Amino acid sequence: MIETPFITLQYPISVNRYWTINQRARSILPTEAGKAWKQAARSLALSQGANHQRVASGPVAAEIVLLPRKKSDGAPSSVRLDLDNCLKVALDAMQGILFDNDKQIVELHACVGSAVTDGALMVRVRPA
User: Fold this and answer.
1) Where does residue 3 rank: exposed (0-12), middle (13-18), buried (19+ CB within 10 A)?
2) Strand, helix or coil for residue 20
3) Which of 12, 72, 85, 109 is the most buried (most CB within 10 A)?
4) What is the overall mean pLDDT for the chain?
5) Does the residue 2 lie in any domain?
């Protein structure tokens, strides 16, 4: 198995802030906040060498670790996203950087990790 490093992104926004429903067109579109988060996440990933890790084709396994925000006293904040809420946001942002299409994902592991100062999201993709 190929061991690839984690890419560390900023704490994600919720799915409800990432997309909006266009009633007239009956479609789901990214919000301005969603576009901004995605652009920032992609820039961070590229700055950490993500493009060199990209799995161009074939099935992949993705691993995601949500790191909650830490309160000023060092304890984890009681307010955090549900783990499943951050998955689609993170994978959408990494499409075209760590993999070509999210249909390539055949294995997915996710967990909540230790709290860090501003919160974060760690993503790793490897061939399945």
Assistant:
1) exposed
2) strand
3) 12
4) 87
5) no
CA distances from 104 to 29, 55, 75 (A): 22, 10, 37
What pLDDT does residue 1 have? 47
Which residue segment(s) compose the domain that 21 sits in? 7-127
pTM: 0.85
Q: Give CA 13 to chain center in angstroms.
A: 10
Total length of the chain: 128
Residue 81 domain-assigned? yes
* CATH number of the domain enclosing 96: 3.30.1330.70
The Cα 4–Cα 10 span in angstroms is: 19
Nearest to 125 by CA among 47, 45, 11, 69: 45
In DSSP terms, which residues pair with 29 in a beta bridge?
A: 20
From the list 8, 80, 16, the residue with the least C-alpha distance to 40 is: 8
